[in-house]
Amino acid sequence: MDFFDALGLDPNAPAHPEALAMRLAGSQAPVVVTLVNVPDPLLICEKLLRLDRYCATGTRLRVDRVAERSLTVAIEQATPDSLDSRMAILHGLLLRAGLHDLKIDGDTITWSDAPEIPDLESGESTRLTDHVQHLIATDPARAWRIEDAARHLGLSSRSLQRYLLAEGGTFSDALRLARTEVSASLLRKSDLSLGEIGFTCGYADQAHFQREFRKVSGQTPRSFRMNGGKIPKPVRKGP
Asked: Which CATH class is domain 128-226?
């Protein structure tokens, strides 16, 4: 999957940073919608950095500093203009998420106000494992850690792991199943590319998506889609 194509941008048509930001601010591209699903500036930035890795662009950035109304990004690899391009893209994504009075000063972006971050739903099941899977499914593109899930559920990481073990699983199991369920639904019901689905569901890259999906479903994502979103029954052999 191409980085710029995923964002609905034409890599062969360079645009002024402001024009680039404005284009993203009104974008309905599926990957853009995924990036701004939760209007948390740090989370949006982390997802954007993950998109670079997922698309193997060679650009490597990191978040250097986060304050109440600003964040600073550092570039570790790639050409000097990559930082300008990524800051313009981040600017557009934060506009798309509803932040106000955005300003860029070199490697730092500031804002005056941001939308309230909504509580993520975790479902009504009596099983904590189901709550974790439901929680992850509300924002599957996020690089979920057990600490994140525990905070949303009002638990310590140790307590959450202990409860999950008591129900016969682990956080990694719940994460794998949640991502598989969301990706299976997208494979059945959408015309998104496999690359878009893999990123949207939080996989590190295409190989990771293929491997993890097959581990749960017994099929590759492509085979699953070609089979109409069904897991074929094993063929019975004669005596």
From this structure: mainly alpha
